[in-house]
UniProtKB/TrEMBL annotation:
Residues 92-165 form a coiled coil. The keyword Membrane applies. It is a single-pass membrane protein. The chain crosses the membrane at residues 170-188. InterPro entries: SH3-like_bac-type, SH3_dom_pro. Residues 1-20 form the signal peptide. This is SH3 domain-containing protein.
Length: 203
């Protein structure tokens, strides 16, 4: 019987723990407003964390400060809850918004940088292609120039040779003609007999 009761008690404590879900405490806290500079004074209201107030005076001995809230209520709160810095409840949404904007700007900057990089890469490829084509054209023109210079030298050599051959032929032809004329001038008088003059003067 005691064992049964013990098991029932254990199950009563274990089952709720098994079905419990994790949660977080919110930052939306509040502090009480007192009518005087001490917890002994009556509570006249409360102020939520992050609410803006005007500091009217501070009682250093009690550790309380007199404030005026946005609803026009005047009262005393503990000085440790009064700060010049906004609470996380107010700053966090603004920081998240700024973070979202920065992420968006960063994404746009990356997209722009990627686009510019692609444009530069494309332009660089086009320039490299143009340079390669110019180098190939220069190589072809240089080869053609070398070939033309070689052909010109060969043609000049052939022309000089033809000139020499032509001069030699002219010289040989002129010499042959002169030699034949000289030979005929020496031989013909001996071959052709001279006619005798007739007594009456007729040939």
């Amino acid at each position: 019987m005691k064992k049964l009761i013990s098991m029932i008690l254990v199950s009563m404590f274990v089952v709720p723990a098994a079905f419990a879900q994790e949660r977080y405490i919110a930052d939306k806290l509040f502090t009480y407003i007192h009518s005087g500079p001490s917890n002994e004074y009556r509570i006249v209201g409360s102020i939520n964390a992050g609410d803006k107030v005007k500091l009217l005076s501070t009682n250093r001995s009690s550790g309380f400060s007199q404030v005026l809230d946005a609803r026009g209520r005047k009262g005393w709160v503990e000085t440790k809850f009064v700060t010049t810095q906004e609470s996380m409840a107010v700053r966090l949404p603004r920081l998240e918004k700024e973070l979202t904007e920065v992420k968006s700007q960063l994404a746009n900057a990356r997209e722009t940088a990627d686009s510019e990089q692609e444009g530069l890469a494309s332009s660089l490829d086009a320039r490299n292609k143009q340079i390669a084509e110019l180098e190939q054209n220069y190589s072809d023109i240089n080869h053609q120039l070398t070939t033309s210079q070689t052909e010109i030298r060969e043609l000049r050599a052939k022309l000089d040779t033809q000139k020499e051959d032509l001069l030699l032929k002219y010289f040989m032809y002129g010499g042959g003609v002169a030699g034949i004329g000289l030979l005929l001038g020496l031989i013909l008088p001996h071959i052709i007999p001279r006619r005798r003059k007739s007594p009456n003067g007729w040939k």
